[in-house]
Specification:
Layout (H helix, E strand, L loop, with lengths): L13 E4 L3 E2 L12 H13 L5 E5 L7 E5 L1 H9 L4 E6 L5 H6 L6 H13 L4 H8 L3 H6 L9 H7 L6 H7 L4 H14 L4 H9 L8 H4 L8 H43 L2 H10 L1 H12 L4
Parallel strand pairs: 2-4, 3-5
Antiparallel strand pairs: 1-5, 3-4
Helix pairs in contact: 1-2, 1-5, 7-9, 8-10, 12-14, 13-14
Length: 292
């Protein structure tokens, strides 16, 4: 028999008066000047509220609700003089899930959404108003991925890389773009500075023609050669460790399962604990490790 799944929301969303919703945190004074607040305000003004707020019935106060998710949206709606909005009513008071488990849209994903909207007839001016930006920036951003290999884009599509770092990738040839994208993912480093360092350490035959003269300005040829050699050594060592990681993880998991079976035997466990207490401590730590 399959387990019954309990819903954590009421079956249908409700239109609620904003006066009936009590926020559990205050929007900072600086939030309405820039950043996310500005973007949310522009979006609501242009296309309305897209994502319903999440509220929970306040105990002992009929018709009143506690805000779980949507404090910026609530502040914007109140500023715009809107009196009511669509809300999801939760059956559990859990603000942590909404505030902690958030997937931020990457630059590449945002670029893809904007391109799709434009091909479907939405003008750059409308997009700019919805995002709180300038039409010229939306138009200029359309060439963000031009000159970047499709495989490198696929590797980085959901990663927190900036537009500036992406543009640096255009300074190297396709095969090096893919190589650098893999290094960024493996190292968990997507910063502009890291991408620039990888470019400085790139052999000249992997740089695009217009970049050769730019790379290493202010650095002597001897220093550039040393940096490229060090970069090649680091990349080679890194890939060697990466190749060994899978095999080592398999050996560790096999050893962990074997030790667990030993400790599941009361007689063996007692013998090891009595004769080799320091070994028992190591075994217990190994068994307690999360499986890799």
């Amino acid at each position: 028999m399959s387990a019954k799944i309990r819903s954590v929301f009421e079956p249908a969303a409700r239109v609620l008066s904003l006066d009936s919703i009590m926020p559990i945190r205050q929007v900072k004074a600086g939030d309405n000047a820039f950043g996310k607040y500005k973007a949310v305000r522009s979006s609501i003004k242009e296309v309305g509220l897209i994502e319903p707020m999440v509220v929970y019935p306040q105990r002992g106060a009929a018709g009143k609700f506690i805000m779980l998710d949507g404090h910026l949206r609530l502040a914007v709606l109140l500023e715009l003089g809107i009196k009511e909005a669509l809300c999801l009513v939760a059956t559990e008071q859990d603000a942590f899930t909404y505030n902690d488990k958030t997937n931020n849209l990457s630059v590449i994903q945002e670029h893809a959404m904007i391109e799709r909207a434009i091909t479907q007839g939405v003008s750059p001016e409308q997009i700019a108003r919805a995002l709180g930006g300038e039409p010229a920036k939306v138009k200029a951003g359309r060439n963000l991925l031009e000159g970047i290999h499709a495989e490198a884009i696929e590797i980085l599509k959901d990663k927190p890389i900036s537009s500036a770092a992406l543009r640096l990738l255009k300074k190297v040839k396709a095969i090096r773009q893919i190589d650098m994208a893999q290094l960024m993912v493996s190292g968990g480093n997507f910063t502009w500075a890291y991408v620039e360092a990888l470019i400085v350490g790139t052999p000249t035959d992997q740089l695009v023609n217009d970049t050769i003269a730019e790379v290493g300005k202010g650095i002597s040829e001897e220093e550039q050669a040393r940096m490229r050699q060090e970069t090649e050594t680091l990349e080679r060592d890194f890939r060697g460790i990466e190749d060994q990681f899978g095999e080592n993880s398999l050996h560790l998991n096999t050893t962990q399962r074997h030790v667990k079976r030993l400790l599941d035997n009361p007689k063996v466990k007692k013998f090891i604990a009595t004769r080799y207490p320091e070994l028992m401590e190591e075994f217990q730590e190994l068994v307690a490790m999360e499986v890799l």
